[in-house]
Amino acid sequence: MQPVVVEHIVQNYRTKKTVVAALKDVSFTVNRGEIFGIIGPDGAGKTSLFRILTTLLLAESGTATVDGFDVVKDYEQIRNRIGYMPGRFSLYQDLSVQENLEFFATIFNTTIEKNYDLIKEIYQQIEPFKDRKAGALSGGMKQKLALCCALIHKPSVLFLDEPTTGVDAVSRKEFWEMLHRLKLQDITILVSTAYMDEASLCDRVALIQKGQILSIDTPKGIISRFKKPLWAIRANEMFKLMNAIKEDPSVESCYPFGQYHHVVFKTEKDSKEKLENIGKDGRYTDVEIKPIEPNIEDCFMELMTN
Amino acid sequence: MQKEKVITAKDLTKRFGDFTAVDKITFDVEKGEIFGFLGANGAGKTTAMRMLCGLLLPTSGLATVAGFDVFKQTEQIKKNIGYMSQKFSLYEDLTITENIRFYAGIYGLTDERIKEKTGLLIKQLHLQGQEKTLVRALPLGWKQKLAFSIAIVHDPAIVFLDEPTGGVDPITRREFWGLIYEASAKGITIFVTTHYMDEAEYCNRVSVMVDGRIDALDTPANLMKDYSAASMDGVFLQLARKAVRTGD
Lengths: 306, 248
Hints:
The complex is a heterodimer of chains A (306) and B (248).
Chain A: E1 4-14, E2 19-30, E3 35-39, H1 46-53, E4 61-66, E5 69-70, H2 75-81, E6 82-85, H3 97-107, H4 116-126, H5 139-151, E7 157-161, H6 169-183, E8 188-193, E9 204-209, E10 212-217, H7 219-224, E11 230-234, H8 238-247, E12 251-257, E13 260-265, H9 272-281, E14 288-292, H10 296-305
Helix pairs in contact in A: 3-5, 4-5
Chain B: E1 5-16, E2 19-30, E3 34-39, H1 45-52, E4 60-65, E5 68-69, H2 74-80, E6 81-85, H3 96-106, H4 111-124, H5 140-151, E7 158-162, H6 170-185, E8 189-193, H7 197-200, E9 205-210, E10 213-218, H8 220-226, H9 232-240
Parallel strand pairs in B: 3-8, 3-9, 6-7, 7-8
Antiparallel strand pairs in B: 1-2, 1-4, 4-5, 9-10
């Protein structure tokens, strides 16, 4: 039995005048014990999807099961066996760290001691502040407490909605290291993020944009589907260089990526020579041109424009 | 010739009780420069930025922004800077043109100038035909592009951008940086914070705050060389891991 099965889920939000399509026929399956990433920008439909799977929102149409239970009929069983960390901090701000954890353990009919092994490593980092009110914690500590509360009943599936939004690069790295250790404890993890670079930390990912899944595969599989050669170029004047490349009719796309611009040509025969000529014509200095492997963000942008 | 300085800070410090949020930071930002202001959560970025925007009085040190003193001339600073963040940008229940009119009016532009600016801005952002659309109905990426254009509607000396591209899709994020480059080419200084390390590489110079101090400040290329890192991500990780204090 697959821990999460989503079939043809459709969700619309209506106001008096308009209909916003949040999810347009979304289907996917998550395997036992994997970290499955839902990767997409704000407004892609990630939170709607999480709220449907955690039985907090009824989909307009389509079906979904979590651990074999139907998200509509069997919502009670699902709520008992999943952990959910919403994007917005939703613990009790006026309870202390320890009180929050005890509260969640109690409503799930368990105790902190019983599943302490599971949260030990994370909880130890916030234990020095166990008497502090949750509302007075820093962002990073709130995040760790929320994860502990979502884990305290040893859920079989963990839903993490944008756990790393607004978190700095170091803390993001640490958070993902925690997830990989949880995975070893047989917990299936569904995690959403707007950071494309986090895709490579998942076993499989669904790239989602405007309510539609663009692609589902392992990160390597998604990259292998990027068929055209990709070139990286840099020179002394990057902004001028980008405009010059974009003006060339043989260029399909040119996007800045840190120190380089990534360039794809419409046909494969146009390539290095073309870039070399652009470099010469604009009299750039320090020109460097090399073929590169695409990353998930290259793939996402290619899928967005197709 | 020495370039005009839009920000000068010398030993700028802010203490809250016995906690030193910003600890003697010293740096300059030149006219038209794109200056990346990096640091882990809790490193003191927001406090430093609030002082530079004239919203928070420093404890000690010296600083000027657009030629005005952060201790005594905070009102003049506010008139001569632009500001946008991921959280605060526009009024959702006003239309695109209403938002432009509102902000331009607050900054004291004449009706004639507002009309002219509105036309220019709508054209630049390819929003023709959508002038009367409520901002609420715009996708996030568009909102952020509009918010940036409005933040510089009064042609400020400098614009402060606090994580302007968080959650924005990768193509729009790059279009947003296109607007930043254009503004910088017009001589507007850009002071930007971001969690995307590839964006740090688009900056002319970058500073990295650790525990309230500026521990590194240079061009991205020099920082990568100094820290033997292949990207700014590597530089940032090395610096931020030295942090002793935790959290926000």
